[in-house]
Design a protein that fits this description.
Blueprint lengths: L7 H14 L31 H28 L17 E2 L2 E2 L6 H7 L6 H25 L38 H5 L45 H29 L5 H25 L6 E2 L4 E2 L17 H4 L31 H12 L13 H13 L6
């Protein structure tokens, strides 16, 4: 039997070898409530300290949430990602998107791509790249968990939701439903406020009030949604679907931007902390991109779903009609406005917000995704059971305590 006090260099080499060559098999067993097998390598000592049960719970939850994000981004990429069929499109760009070694076909819905390109002509490239990133996050976190002797997480049992019926979309079950979203756009005003912070009890208005009411598709449901007007222009309904997606992109990525630094405060092991501090900023890069692109929408209305995209540059609050609201809604104010942090007496500072977990950082993320409608089964009007599983993992992550 190998001596449990192994040389540091040997352990490090073995772990690097695993991360380089190891692959996590599809359908891996889930990690229940953050528990780790007794005697697992997760509790070995090295120069970064022990990897605790709390660390494993945090990594497992983040991997689960990244699997959810990968699922929704794959759907966006399938319909709106890279395609050479769009006139004046990507030029030399090629799609090398894949999951578990299987290529993913992208840009299937050409007219949806055109509608997305109203926000930016590079939208197909950005969507494809964001998808690639989320797939890599989930795969890496699972590999990292396995390298520490913990079980990787797999939510595939909940992949039963029907995807878009657009011709060419693979008709296998999905974890997420992008056809009935209630999109919270209060992140828009939260990052513009100079006087309020959610960590200090601040509340914020929606930028697009109609998106926060009812249920709205962010992808075309079928080929009928892709039909153009007789003159070849994009109908308001299809354009509204694309604009809904644009704001949903920002909603999804601002969540990750806050979640990683929030959970990092509970990590004990330095290497695990490095993982969170290295992945988290990529979520902020995504968020900044989508924050910028969302503001390029046209002023349109879609009566079919009682959805209007108002003029946010008019100095008018779209929620109340009050004037003098330029700073809260102006579309080119995409840098985080300095605001209060920790203590109002310290003065304003530009920060990610929120990063406190008094309301449960991981649990709050699951609730936000649930309220967004991501897990609604159209056959029942309820979620698929994934919310209970995610909340179990979130509670374990939120219960983690930083060891000294």
């Amino acid at each position: 039997m190998e001596n449990p006090v192994r040389p540091l260099l040997k352990r490090s080499s073995n772990r690097r070898s695993f991360l380089k060559n190891g692959a996590v098999a599809a359908g891996a067993a889930t990690l229940a409530a953050g528990l780790v097998p007794v005697g697992a390598a997760a509790f070995d000592q090295d120069n970064s300290g022990p990897v605790t049960k709390g660390d494993i719970a945090i990594l497992t939850f983040l991997s689960a949430l990244e699997q959810v994000e990968a699922d929704l981004w794959i759907q966006y990429a399938e319909l709106g990602g890279l395609t050479n069929a769009v006139p004046g499109g990507e030029g030399l760009a090629t799609n090398d998107l894949a999951q578990n070694g299987k290529p993913i076909t992208t840009g299937i819905a050409t007219n949806y791509v055109l509608a997305l390109q109203i926000l930016d002509t590079d939208m197909p490239q950005y969507i494809t790249d964001n998808t690639d990133d989320e797939i890599s996050h989930h795969a890496f976190l699972n590999n990292f968990l396995a390298s520490k002797g913990a079980r990787p997480i797999d939510l595939s049992e909940f992949a039963i939701l029907p995807p878009s019926q657009v011709t060419g979309v693979p008709q296998h079950g999905r974890l997420t439903n992008l056809k009935q979203l209630t999109v919270d756009t209060s992140w828009w005003t939260r990052y513009r406020s100079s006087t309020a912070n959610p960590d200090l009890g601040g509340t914020f208005e929606n930028a697009i009030p109609d998106l926060a009411k009812g249920q709205h598709p962010a992808i075309p449901l079928n080929d009928g949604d892709l039909a153009l007007n007789p003159d070849g222009s994009i109908p308001n309904h299809l354009q509204a679907i694309a604009f809904t997606a644009g704001f949903h992109f920002g909603f999804i990525e601002q969540g990750g931007t806050s979640l990683y630094p929030t959970l990092a405060q509970r990590v004990t092991n330095v290497e695990v902390l490095r993982v969170l501090l290295s992945i988290g900023p990529t979520e902020a890069m995504h968020f900044q991109t989508w924050h910028d692109k969302a503001g390029n929408f046209n002023l349109i209305s879609d009566p079919a779903q009682n959805l209007s995209f108002p003029n946010l540059n008019a100095g008018i609050d779209p929620n109340t009609g009050a004037s003098g609201a330029a700073d809260e809604f102006q579309t080119n104010l995409i840098m985080p406005e300095p605001t209060v942090f920790l203590n109002q007496n310290l003065g304003p500072v530009s920060i990610v917000r929120p990063t406190a977990d008094f309301d449960g950082g991981a649990r709050a993320a699951v609730k936000a995704f649930k309220d967004d409608g991501l897990f609604v089964d159209p056959a029942t009007g309820k979620d698929t059971g994934i919310v209970a599983r995610l909340m179990e993992l979130a509670e374990a992550a939120d219960a983690a305590q930083r060891g000294l």
